[in-house]
Amino acid sequence: MPFPIHRKRRLRVSEPMRRLVRETRLDPSQFILPLFTCPGEGVRREIGSMPGNFQLSIDELVKECEQARALGIGGVILFGIPEKKDEFASEAYADEGITQRAVRALKRGVPNLLVITDVCNCEYTSHGHCGKIVDGDVDNDATLAWLAEAALSHARAGADIVAPSDMMDGRVAAIRHSLDAHGFYKTPILSYAAKYASVFYGPFREAAESTPQFGDRRSYQMDPANGREAIAEMDLDLEEGADMLMVKPAMPYLDVIRAARERYHVPIGAYQVSGEFSMIVAAAQKGWLDLDRAMMESLISIRRAGADFMLTYFAKDAARALG
After folding, report:
1. At residue 267, what are phi and psi to the nearest 5 degrees?
2. Domain-embedded: residue 104
3. What sign does the CA torsion over 179, 180, 183, 189 have?
């Protein structure tokens, strides 16, 4: 038998060689750090199911964001935990709501950091659903007014990007119309365009205190079995004025990220959600995985699938690992 002519291992012989021919690269600027902000002062309450992540009062949030900026992280996305909840999600669009106050504080204290706001209602409603309940279900069109008002209040506070995550039909158009009508035509919309009804959101619901009090969200979030439907959702959101698209979760839907990358010429984001983070950390705590390698491999897979940027709870640790 002759020796092989083609030896792919030649380009794997050392780390400098592997680095030279590496196809997919990570940079801290590709990471968006999700953060949870709550009322009070000096509050830094660890989330039990998400080790190393915290509910933060605004003063502590500013400190966290100073670290993120120093690490070169691309930005943060804010989730507000209000002092009180009601059936109308009124704190979601109040000018003095927790998210609105947090944005203003960050724009004063960490002015060069990109601030994205999650536009949804589940953290703010007493029932934990993403909109107005009528006859036991979320009323799509009534909810649009809440979302448009919330996005407008975030833009007024200084948010760089607003990111609707509710999965109501027509929400991008409602938000775009409201922003433009009030002079915020420069504020981009990052749409959670393909958001699946996923089991991997479990730890987030503890973090954001947003577990539904009845039923589930499968009547408005996407069926995990559907891929073509994700393309239809993304088509519609772009028609309505979305500037960027997001797939959520990330690793179970790498095929959807790839399909979006091949079809669209807009920035594509992917959210490595709480359950993805927590299962890697839990396995590492058991000694079943090397945490740093699993973290970086998971992020590489999302980037390789086609995501331009990633929302990830590993943002700080990954940025440090990249040096």
Report:
1. -60, 140
2. yes
3. positive
| CB contact at 8 A, 191 and 246 | yes
For the chain, the domain total comes to 1
Flag whether 199 is in a domain: yes
Catalytic residues: 195, 248
For 153-167, letters b (16+ CB in 10 Å) and e give: bbbbbbbbbbbbbbb
The model's pLDDT over 231-286, given as tens digits with 9 standing for 90+, comes to 999 999 999 999 999 999 999 999 999 999 999 999 999 999 999 999 999 999 99
- Dump pLDDT digits (tens) for 5-61: 899 999 999 999 999 999 999 999 999 999 999 999 999 999 999 999 999 999 999
Report if residue 148 sits inside a domain.
Answer: yes
Q: State the residue range of the domain holding 133.
A: 27-322
Look at residue 208 and tell me if it is in a domain: yes
Assign residue 252 the CATH number of its domain. 3.20.20.70
